[in-house]
Amino acid sequence: MRAVTYSETGPSSVLGVVERDDPTPGPGEVLVRVVRAGVNPTDWKFRAVMKSIPGEVVPGQDGAGTVEALGEGVENLQVGDRVWLYLAQHGRAVGTAAELTVQPAEHVVPLPDGASFDLGASLGVPAVTAHRALTVSGVDRLAPGALAGHTVLVAGGAGAVGNAAIQLAVWAGATVVTTVSGPEKAALAAAAGAHHVVNYRTEDVAARVREIAPDGVDTVVEVAPAANFALDVEVAAQHGTVAFYADNGGEEATVPLRPGFAKNLRIQGILLYTVRPEHLRAAAEDVTAAVVAGALRVGEEVGVPLHHFPLEETAAAHDAVEGGAVGKVLIDVG
After folding, report:
1. Helix 205-212 crosses helix 225-235 at what angle (to 10 degrees)?
2. Reported pTM
3. Confidence (pLDDT) at 52
4. Rounded Cα gap, residues 268 and 103, in angstroms
5. How buried is residue 268: exposed, middle or buried, by Cβ count under 10 Å (0-12/13-18/19+)?
6. Which pLDDT band, with edges at 50, 70 and 90, does 178 fall under?
7. Residues in a beta bridge with 104
8. Rounded-to-integer distance, Cα 73 and Cα 291, Å
9. Average pLDDT of the chain, as a whole number
10. What mean pLDDT comes out for the span 277-288?
């Protein structure tokens, strides 16, 4: 099989295509023939800055393809099933930038009929992160009506996680407000379904959010806490939650303490690698349900332009994500 690998950290030039023997699944594992792999910021960051790596690494946390073989004890899948993968390279040396990958059965999820491999490879990190951000405030599961009466503020609604958060929150019945940096991204966020789009470069975000939600927002899905925590605390409702999943714009943040504790706010960090297995399972089930309902999609028409790269150009795909490509970067593997 062909696979993209690297054996030392560094720029994208450390990536190369090699031939490897076809792997075999062990007990509780699934062999998947990858058709499409998704690229996320975590992929290039792991490649670029990890102090040590487990020998030769095949990158890629997200992907979609078909089941090629089953290990002993796997009962919920069959050979030939279309599936999507999440956290494929977490704790393992082989992710999704390969024609074949062996994965734990719990990270292999049936891809609903009618859902494309493009969509399947775009779920993983963005949708599971968004699900976790929307459920840390006491809503255990997402479904139609689960967030009825809630107002959600999504920072950076044109990003992959932001877009998924908008789509999932709208599906669950929330009123969604999002912030963007300009007209092009405003159009993408609106296409994703956001009810209110605020340009943080030209508008008073706090004033606009207060117009929309006089009592404050119930949940903030935050990508840039260093820049936005003061704003988040200001616009949050009593007993609201600020869920942050990245450190865009700075590695340290200042939180206004008195306004925060006066509102009984919850500030919740999110990193998928340390999320409890039961929460990951719930996210995978709810994300799949949203796909079945047609509520979670990709493509220009829903604010997620797709950028395809062949397997041989995985380095360019990494560079595109690192360079801030708007939309979803995908690798055509199969």
Report:
1. 40
2. 0.96
3. 67
4. 29
5. middle
6. very high
7. 29
8. 27
9. 96
10. 97
* 287: in domain: no
* Same domain flag for 142 and 200: yes
Per-residue pLDDT, 231: 97
The pairing of strands 29-39 and 62-70 is antiparallel
CB 89 within 8 A of CB 95: yes
In terms of domains, do 138 and 256 share one? Answer: yes
Look up the domain containing 267 and give its range: 127-273
Exposed (0-12), middle (13-18) or buried (19+): which is 143, by Cβ within 10 Å? middle
| pLDDT beyond 70 at 17 | yes
Q: How confident is the model at residue 250 (pLDDT cuts 50, 70, 90)?
A: confident
Q: Return d(Cα 131, Cα 279) in angstroms, integer.
A: 9
Check residues 53 and 13 and name the one with the higher pLDDT.
Answer: 13
Give the alpha-carbon dihedral of 81, 82, 86, 89, to 10 degrees: 80
299, 21 Cβ separation under 8 angstroms: no
Last residue of a domain, one of 258, 273, 288: 273
Tokens found for residue 22: 């076809």
Which 3 state secondary structure label does DSSP give 183?
A: helix
CA distance 271 to 125: 10
Same domain as 218, residue 102: no
Residue 187 CA to residue 152 CA, distance in Å, equals 19
Q: Rounded CA gap, 185 and 164, in Å?
A: 14
DSSP secondary structure letter of residue 21: P
What is the residue-wise DSSP string for 106-172?
GGEEEPPTT--HHHHHHSHHHHHHHHHHHHTTS--S--TTTTTT-EEEEESTTSHHHHHHHHHHHHT
Q: Is residue 280 part of a domain?
A: no
Using an 8 Å Cβ cutoff, are 81 and 52 in contact? no
Which amino acid is it at 97? A
